[in-house]
Design a protein that fits this description.
- The protein is an alpha/beta fold and 566 residues long.
- It has helices spanning 11-14, 31-63, 95-113, 138-146, 153-161, 164-173, 193-206, 217-225, 229-236, 240-249, 256-265, 284-293, 312-323, 338-344, 348-357, 405-422, 445-454, 526-531, 542-561; strands at residues 302-306, 330-333, 361-363, 384-390, 426-437, 457-464, 501-508.
- The chain has a seven-stranded mixed sheet, with helices on both faces.
- Helix 3 packs antiparallel against helix 19 (542-561) and helix 6 packs across helix 7.
- The radius of gyration is 25 Å and the shape is globular.
Amino acid sequence: LKFQAMADFDPWSALDDVGIEDVDPDATEEVVEEEALEEVLEDQIEAEDVEEAFDEVEADVEDEPPEDANAGEDGDEADEAPMREDDLKLADVSEEMREAVEGNLHLKRMLVSNAAGNERDPNKRRKVTDEKTQVTDPEKVALMQKWRLSHDPAIAYVLHASQIEEVRAVAKSNWQPNPNMKPSTPGRDPKTCTEQVNEKLLAAREAHMCPKDSVDVIQALRHRWALEKEDINLLRAMNHKDLRFVVLNYDGSRSIAELAEEAALQEPSEEVERAEEALPEKPGLFTMSRFNRLELIDPTADALVVGDANLTFSALLAEHRESLGHVGRVVATTFETIEILKERYKEIEHTVKSLEDKMSEVLHNVDGTRLAVDPRFKGMENKFGAVYYNFPHAGVVQGFFDGHPFVRWRHENLMHLFFRALRGFVKEGGIVKVSSNCSATGVRFSDIILGAQNSEFVHIETFPFLEWQLRNYGRSYGDRRDKGRRPGDGEIYRSQSGMSDMVYCFRYEPSGKAPPKAAIRYPPTKGDLLASDEGRLRNMKGGKKEERVQEIYELFLTYVQGIHVG
């Protein structure tokens, strides 16, 4: 299909409708403080919803055979992924797709082996294990000794999980945690040494990454290939045709100058058959940036939306594609079941019908990290030319802020497992966009970029959310709060608004070789939780603390199994 009138398309005027004029240049926000306030509200959500989900997990754990019942001749545990209703068995998934769900499998093995069982009869509940994480690396041990925190189980967990390069960077800086730190927000507890160490290690990791906020097409290429200043100057002087050619073909084997000469020799297409061919002589960087913001995606390929709670983003995307004459479908998914959605969004049935009227497909109860075992995605392999995931979040754990290492592993894993799951379903050259607050402490910008990179999704640009063609959908909290109030109904969801919201853009460029294993961060052991004074556990003792640790571990298990808890 040809893009009608693309030859006359003016990206300067077209972007006048993308809300630049609506941005208040003086608008600022203290993201960390506001996120803290939001999490205080979110803390109230978990308790009411989680009990029902625990019942499902209890049944699953109780029905599991003895530890060695599924062992083969060598005593190995059978490879069964954590299951949800109607999930395919791992044996029924093609071999090349299995690796996409192995991360969940490893997590479940760890959690079940450390689980206390929470039988329905409280009198039969097994004693919570007191095994704690052990640090054996001499450099990490030395750092704990230097800080006089050798016996802190939470510090041990954080350092044990950290890359040695990050540990060395922190050690070299001579920084050390402050046990007497004052709270950054009035009324909030001060950050513990564990939180301080975790943030310092993350800062060491992110110091070598691209900025967390706006990164243009050329900056992304420069960071990926460590380009020299003269290369950057050459790229910035190119027109659209030449810059797009260089960006798509540069692999380090030839110089930027050589590719620029080759690009200049190619004549522009006389007939514009693809959006990428429009405006060949316009300034390259400006036009490619407009292209990404105006959402000129593959018109014939399907588009997947993950975790769209109230489906308003999917509806906006379907409208957008219809206006451009696209024939590719929108496959809109929600993590929640339709029953939960009906309770929260009285308009949900109308939204679903409007999507279906535009030839879109709507699927509920979809875990975006487990597409390979979802039977509804059979036949969708290599079909998607665009994928969207807005403001990803792994859910609240009562008593901990999102950035605390005891719970942040879930957010980090979410991104690594999400991108790994997409490998079997996104076309080569397909685009993935993840929107998030660049200062979020749960799913951090580095989780998004590193999760994508590890699965061969190349970072091509980051731009402000407020400049996006698809920004004006009906934002939601994505939890029980949506039943009574919504962002925009006289209030603002402060953790998801403002100039620090970004759209992180990636292109799928598979090498043909097996990628490295998905980087999975493991949770703390029950012993770590019991022995620590982190979060609200600091105010608990004895049986009350043990019971809360049991509940947290069962919540972790629901996360791995993809069960919605609120």
